[in-house]
Amino acid sequence: GGTARAPAPRGRGAGRPTTPGAAVGVPSKRAPSVRRPAPAPPARPARVLWSRGATGRDVRELQARLHQIGWLVDGPTGTYDDLTERAVNGFQRKRGLPRTGRTDTVTWQRLLAMTREPGRWELYRMGGQPAAAPDARCLTGRVLCISKSSRTLRWMVDGRTVSTMAVRFGSQYTPTREGVFHVYWKSRHHWSTLYRSPMPYAMFFSGGQAVHYSYDFAARGYAGASHGCVNVRDEGAIADLYARVRDGDKVVVYR
């Protein structure tokens, strides 16, 4: 007595649900899956090998290698002191590395590439002796104490060495004068009209001769010479020195 049931569909596509408006028996299109690359692991920070207070043979080698390229004036002591920290900081700044003063793996590899393995004399005998005592004229007052023999500038206050940096001098044709002088003029952004070259952080002590930062010294080291001035290669060190020195401070240049 009821209504007749329509026969079930047969054949291809039978029994498949369809979406409204879709043709019966035509499979729906799916968007192709996109495989995203796995995120790169974060870069691991350089591992610190040595920092202030460290001691031992490895620190001696670090100091000897810094000495080879003029960043550390005194020989190895085996103790990572403030002078070593300042030398590492200057080396890092020159090479565009983070300026921490600590020797990490990146800094150490860069230094290894620029230096040779030091011999036993460089590691021990050279560093086993204390640095030569400064000239007696440097032991009182505020003094830029400059030694031609060791090629160093010490900033000294009442006989105490506050900082030390490597310096170079004039050639035999334009020698740096020796004697006792006084800073009579400071010029932060000085330009030499005679030699047409920059003289940043200039501290004049004898005529046209001054202590100042040298781009050439920083680039070529002791392969060059000044026109009589006392060149400094560490810009950070001389910037700090320039801020401390006053007009009238004593300058002693000696051998």
Word description of this protein:
This protein is α+β, with helices and mostly antiparallel strands and 255 residues long. The chain is built from six helices and eleven strands. It has a nine-stranded mixed beta sheet with strand order 6-11-3-4-5-10-9-8-7. A two-stranded antiparallel ribbon has the order 1-2. A hairpin with a 2-residue loop joins strand 4 (152-157) and strand 5 (160-168). Helix 1 packs across helix 4. The chain is globular and about 85 Å long. Mean pLDDT is 84; it is low at 11-15 and 17-24.
Task: Provide key terms for this protein.
single chain, 255 residues, alpha+beta, Muramoyl-pentapeptide Carboxypeptidase, domain 1, L,D-transpeptidase catalytic domain-like, 2 domains, 9-stranded mixed sheet, two-stranded antiparallel ribbon, 6 helices, 24% strand
